[in-house]
Amino acid sequence: MYILGGIIKTMAGEDISDGYVRLVNGKIAEIGKRDESKVHPAAHERVLEVRNGIIMPGIIEAHCHMGITEEKKGMEGDDCNETVDPITPWLRAVDAINTMDAAFGDAVRAGITAAMIGPGSSNVVGGQFALLKTSGRRVDDLVIKAPAAMKVAFGENPKVNYSGQSKSPSTRMAIAGMLRKELFRAKQYAQDKENAVKQGQDFQEDFTLECWLPVLNKEIPLKAHVHRVDDIFTAIRIAREFGLNMTLDHCSEGHLIAEELAAEGFPAIVGPDFASRNKIEVQNMAFKTAGVLNRAGVMTAITTDHPVSLIQSLPLCVGMAVKAGLPLEEGYKAMTIYAADICGVADRMGSLQVGKDANLAIFDGNPMEVFTETLYTIIDGEIVYEAGK
Questions:
Q1: 124 φ, ψ to 5°?
Q2: Rounded to an integer, what distance in angstroms lies between the CA atom of residue 147 and that of residue 127?
Q3: Buried (b) or exposed (e) across 101-132, using 16+ Cβ within 10 A?
């Protein structure tokens, strides 16, 4: 497939006006300035003439719960939180995501080609996130990376859930203590397993602890639900104690400590700022947070936290952040290459470069503007949405 014309926003350097992109076998095979000597479609190749549109990498939602908290289904379709045990690292999002949830279709129509999906924040440790493509029926076929992160949560949500059951944690001290205890147990397990392997001894694997090995080996990050300043710093304290990678999800008061967060080096996934300030810990939530963090040097993506805000509003959430101070080009990056980097897949997606997955979104204008329409959404080189069809 050839895509011709328009403005190509590569997210890997300068924009290309009146350029071309060639997709072959689900990958980006060629990209550059339009040149008739280079564009030679084979008889079977489709040619998309975009003219004045914007061609960009497919948008990436870095944190949401679509398909695991289904729309219009109530308890029957809500598999987001196993609220009977505060420590459940062995739970896997892929076992509960319903790809038939209407949100997947909404995502595709919005130019969103990948989404990080996982458990909610009622537990201290909620389980494993998965990064999925947004089009298809069988979840196994949509997996880009699984596990992709381990969900942990600080603050109000675990406190409210378990204090209401008259069990721990009912304080922030207990949340931090329980997470430390679990990580200490996992670290000891990893050491015991390593020693047994070195000595050629049999080792009895523990399903409830094996899931921590990718985290301890820094293959995937902790995905920390944090809103308040104190919770953000507690998450950082624990990540430093155990030498772990981590993303700061929501980071609602991040703008109050932007310089400190830049010095720490953990990326942030900000939002959902379209939602109401319906909890004490989100009283300082604002669209300006992403811009303040970005200008301080924190790698920042933006989330809808679907279904808290609807998945299709992601480009508009970015637009509101731009309106509140995030530079426009950084807004494009926040929903593409920065999101890919934070999700651990920047080698495959997030920018238009030869060899990367052919996941693209094509719009008739800036996707951050409310009247802009998606013309095409392309995943693995296949058109999964075309305007008017």
A1: -60, -45
A2: 9
A3: bebbbbbbbbbbbbbbbbbbbbbbbbbbbbbb
Q: What is the DSSP string of 267-301?
A: -EEE--TTS---SGGGTT--THHHHHHHHHT--EE
What backbone phi and psi angles, to 5 degrees, belong to 162? -90, -30
**Radius of gyration of the chain measured on its C-alpha atoms:** 21
Reading the block at residue 241, the tokens are: 């104690």
> What is the spatial order of strands in the sheet that 246-250 belongs to?
59-64, 112-117, 125-133, 143-153, 222-226, 246-250, 268-270, 300-302
Pull the structure tokens for residue 64: 């949401």
Q: What is the pLDDT of residues 17-41, one digit of tens each?
A: 999 999 999 999 999 998 877 787 8
Residue 45 has pLDDT above 80, yes or no: yes
Q: How many whole angstroms from its chain centre is CA 149?
A: 10
Asked if 323 and 287 count as a contact pair (C-beta separation under 8 A), the reply is: yes
What tokens appear for 266 in the block? Answer: 């953990």
For the chain, the first-to-last Cα distance in angstroms comes to 19
3-state helix, strand, coil in the chain (%, to 5): 30, 25, 40
Q: Is residue 19 classed exposed, middle or buried when 0-12, 13-18 and 19+ CB atoms within 10 A define those classes?
A: buried
What confidence category does residue 249 fall into, taking pLDDT thresholds of 50, 70 and 90? very high
Distance CA 150, CA 128 (A): 5
List pLDDT tens digits, range 122-178. 999 999 999 999 999 999 999 999 999 999 999 999 999 999 899 999 999 999 999
Q: Is 32 left (phi over 0), alpha (psi -120 to 50) or beta?
A: left
Is residue 333 within 8 Å of residue 368, measured between CB atoms?
no
Q: What is the reported pTM?
A: 0.97
Decide: 159 and 172 in contact? Cβ < 8 Å: yes
